[in-house]
Amino acid sequence: MSRRTFLNTTGGLAAASLIGLRAGKVLAGAQASDPMALGVVDLVKAIRGKEVSCREVMQACLDRIDAENPTYNAIVSRQDPEKLLEQADRADAAIAAGQATGALHGIPQAPKDLTAVAGIATTQGSPIFKDFVPKSDSIMAERMRREGAIFVGRSNTPEFGLGSHSYNTVFGTTRNAWDPALSAGGSSGGAAVALARHMLPVADGSDMMGSLRNPAGWNNVVGFRPTQGLVPYGPAAEVFVQQLGIEGPMGRTVADTAWLLSVQAGHDPRAPLSREVDPLQFRQDLSRDFKGARIGYLGDLNGYLPTEPGVMDLCASALGHFTDLGCHVEEARLDFDMDVAWQTWLTLRGFSIAGVAGKLYQDDKTRALLKPEAVWEIENGLKLSGAQVFAASANRSALYQAMLALFARYDVLILPTAQIFPFDAEQPWPKEIAGRQMDTYHRWMEVVIPATLAGLPVAAVPAGFGPKGASQPMGLQIIGPARADLQVLQLAHAYEKASGFPQHSPLQA
Fold it and tell me: Taking every annotated instance into account, which residue ranges of this chain make up the domain Amidase (predicted)?
């Protein structure tokens, strides 16, 4: 399959055949008494088909959070249950009146506690903002609300989203959906755990250094980092330069993830670098034949990355599902100095964080409330010269060209979502991997930076479990060329069917 074929073929049903318009009942058996067992695609269909009311869905959501959240701490800033049920009643009344329903009509959601939500605390996991309540929504929250979502609270995150372990001094630690003694990953850890434990049917998140990818892999769900510009970020004080962090969707299935992406995607004039696209493309049937597709496996980047024993074996084994689909899988090599990539990352990340949070550092009172990792990032950023930032941007551009050269040979690239399995939740961050000391709080997540720096679409899908079983979930990054978001989701969907990973739930473990 040529790269042109990969980019242009949509396969499956025509775009007009949208998920959610299929005939047939979706609530049956045990699911009839627990609508939260459904993902968003089937839940929307059940609500529209009047198989379940929005009130019943909301009550089931609240019951599930009551049962699960004391252990896992995924949902924070919870809203008043009675007011949420009143909103659900209004959603039911709209259906009874024959009014048009949005893509998330009556669906409980808990936006990540980094994105602004009007009327609900946006703490960013920081004691500095523990009482901050925005007056307006972010673009993403605005779109979710417009499509009928009901916000039950927020999903937990590390302070300012820094680090791939979701703990903070405001709400505490979010714990892994498969083993509460372990880390959930981050920074979208609360979202991933809420999905896996059925507290939410779909969830939003954001990703700078694997924050949609690592928690997806560690909780056996799906995360999707879109192509840079597909999902507008803002409103923000700076809308042209800060492009490392991207918002995106998570789900228990690829179709659920794509459904939320259809709400998030598309141009907004407040984000001038956002793209004009038809978001409904992400609601079409994702089925497609991938026989002959060419897959390059980057593994541990030719020995550059230290990895915990078992990670590489597991990921290599998971590649067999692509072979079952008829894909050609082979080892690939990225022709770029990864030490240069790491230094580029440190420069651009420090520059970005200092730009956003530098004022907090300059004030003695707020600086005292910053966690050490945030102080370290800001201080690194404040030391940079303009020439250093420009040189890093040039190196980033060179890395993109190196990735582009690989896409001349391969349709997609594969990497693990993390270099280690979930670690002890009481540990701030891993200090070593396979005997190699980690010199920063995020060096252990270096595997995610090639796709971030190149601005490429990435689907994070479960790879399975390590030698110790359910306490060692791991994922794969499926990385596509820029703007091949739909095609990456289609391949992730095919992989999902071949691997059967949605059948594995921590609620049944």
Answer: 56-489
